[in-house]
Write a structure and sequence with these properties.
By secondary structure, the protein is of the alpha+beta class. It folds into 2 domains: about 40 residues; about 200 residues, Porin. It is about 15% helix and about 55% strand. It contains 2 helices and 11 strands, in the order H-E-E-E-E-E-E-H-E-E-E-E-E. The strands form 2 sheets. The chain has an 8-stranded antiparallel beta barrel with strand order 1-3-4-5-6-8-9-11. A two-stranded antiparallel sheet has the order 7-10. InterPro entries: Beta-barrel_OMP_2. This is Porin family protein. It comes from Arcicella rigui. Pfam families: OMP_b-brl_2.
Length: about 250
């Protein structure tokens, strides 16, 4: 009888232990789930159906540095040459304009637009046996149209990266008519440039903000000067070069 009584007591205690263990586990998991839920930070996705639309419009501002890439003539640094150095320092440039973005696929877009660009490209000369260092500043306003193919990454929340590349067509609008009469440096009024850049798309509640760093290399020889211009006799070719930070809003 004692043995039977002892087994019955052990069986009752075992049920209580198992029940207590189940209650403890359920309570622990519930508390842990509540703590996890409290620590979870919900992040709102802005304009989540943005990519369903094919065409988007916007505007931009650009701030950068622009200069000439100088290719010297064969007479440079020869016995008949007068110039010791010819350099083109970077000068501030500014752009403003509109943009259009056309979706081609989930990863590729076509970017274009029409911009007004202000450039102040300069050339500094240093001549032999002279303490005078003349400089020629070519201030100009250009109408430009970039045509770029953009490759974008997958969107992570409200952000994604992209790279783009293409060409830019440019036309100078404020052509100076007295360059030949002053016999100073003059440049052509049309240009085609190779462009490439990298940027970030950041989505907000009411708009998309896109900063982009873009490099531009002119393919056209802009050098144009009268034969009597002693300042430019050692120059054979001028190509535009610029580095621009674009701030775009769509």
């Amino acid at each position: 009888m004692f043995t039977t009584h002892f087994r019955n007591q052990y069986y009752i205690y075992r049920q209580k232990v198992i029940l207590f263990a189940i209650i403890f586990c359920v309570g622990f998991l519930g508390v842990n789930h509540e703590v996890s839920a409290q620590n979870y930070d919900y992040k709102r996705i802005y304009d989540e159906f943005y990519d369903d639309k094919i065409v988007h419009f916007g505007f931009l501002f650009g701030f950068g540095s622009s200069r000439f890439n100088i290719h010297h003539s064969e007479s440079f640094n020869t016995p008949g040459s007068t110039a010791v150095t010819i350099v083109s320092p970077g000068n501030f440039s500014f752009q403003v304009g509109g943009l259009v973005n056309v979706k081609l696929s989930d990863r590729f877009d076509l970017k274009s637009g029409l911009n007004i660009a202000l450039y102040g490209r300069q050339i500094n000369y240093r001549f032999q046996n002279s303490s005078n260092f003349p400089a020629e500043l070519r201030e100009s306003t250009w109408l430009e149209m970039p045509i770029l193919l953009k490759y974008k990454s997958l969107r992570r929340g409200n952000s994604r990266m992209f790279v783009d590349a293409g060409v830019k067509l440019g036309l100078e609008t404020n052509v100076r008519k007295n360059a030949a009469s002053t016999r100073r440096l003059d440049t052509n009024t049309g240009d085609v440039s190779l462009e490439y850049g990298i940027g970030l798309e950041q989505f907000f509640k009411y708009f998309k903000f896109t900063p982009e760093l873009r490099f531009s290399h002119g393919l056209t020889n802009l050098f144009q000067t009268p034969a009597a211009n002693s300042y430019a006799r050692d120059i054979q070719r001028l190509n535009a070069h610029s580095v621009t930070l674009y701030l775009m809003f769509e």
